[in-house]
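Sorry to interrupt, but I need a hand with the structure work. It will help me judge whether the discrete encoding reads sensibly. Write everything out right here, beneath this request:
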Amino acid sequence: MQARLIAFYLPQYHPIPENDEWWGKGFTEWTNVTKAKPLFSEHYQPHLPADLGFYDLRLSETRQAQADLAKEYGIYGFCYYHYWFNGKRLLERPFNDVLNSGQPDFPFCLCWANENWTRRWDGKEQNLLLKQIYSEEDDRLHMQWLAQAFSDRRYIKVDGKPLFLVYRATKLPNPQQTVKIWREEAKRLGVGEIFLCRVESFASEQEDPRLIGFDASVEFQPDWTQLGLPLQKGRLWHLARKLGLAHQAYGNHNIYEYSTIVKHMLAKSNPTYQRFPCVTPSWDNTARRQAGAIILQNSTPEVYESWLRTIVDNTLANNYSTEKIVFINAWNEWAEGNHLEPCQKWGHAYLEATRMALRDRKTDFTTYLSRETCLK
């Protein structure tokens, strides 16, 4: 048996009228990516694409190339972020084209990013651009649209049920009622049973999902509740302060050592409910934020591979569920510095690490920590 690796997928790589209005004509995620600059010595910025270039997701050739690359390196499917605002969808064209054309022939599921649309990406969360408005009528309308996707033969299923994620389940005013309506409507539409997962993105989301009617959870990485103190609170920060370089070097950002974060994540206790684990190859959202960004520095394909391999082994050994699924955050979050797609620094190294984690599980992260290359 092999674990199914599902990578989160961002569709923010084509212009839309709303982004033209809010951010400027022609804005896409690449606008943020190309503006990023290194903030201190050894800071890896900007993250620039290699093989696929600065692509436009309106092109079927691009979407096919992504799927071909993912399949080659062991990714089972994509989890597309889905933006629904009381019947209005944003960034919908790439997935619409995937659904309507039947191509690429590559498994997928959806994650409803149900937060308000704000200027969060540049650190100005108080500026509301598009608000989520919840209602029973909208719950039914939403499921009526989702049923089209759920009925596609490529749609990923858990225990034979279409898998649907909600990014911020606690934002739903009455999640039990929403779930009840969704399940009723799915049956009425001929979809049958559905498998609902809440994403454990924040502390308020990390409780038994069955309490609000969901079937399971999906771990989000990085887990913000397990980061510990940033490096600025330690020896390096105090040395920089003595030299008068603290603000110059780090700005108002939070920096963590990737290997240390991996160790923290693997030390998390197992929940009493079903939770699909997640790993991330890296994280650095300074491309989006002038202040308050989180940087996981010194990520390498070797450390990522060890983390993923350990998680895959644990998943295969876990008897809690017959479904062996591991999420990866993400396939193409370029402005958050977490992407499996090839970049100019690492090429295919993270993809190769992904493939090796599935094929060769002789070395787990515990073994890696014992090496001389790990943190002192």
Summary: The radius of gyration is 20 Å.
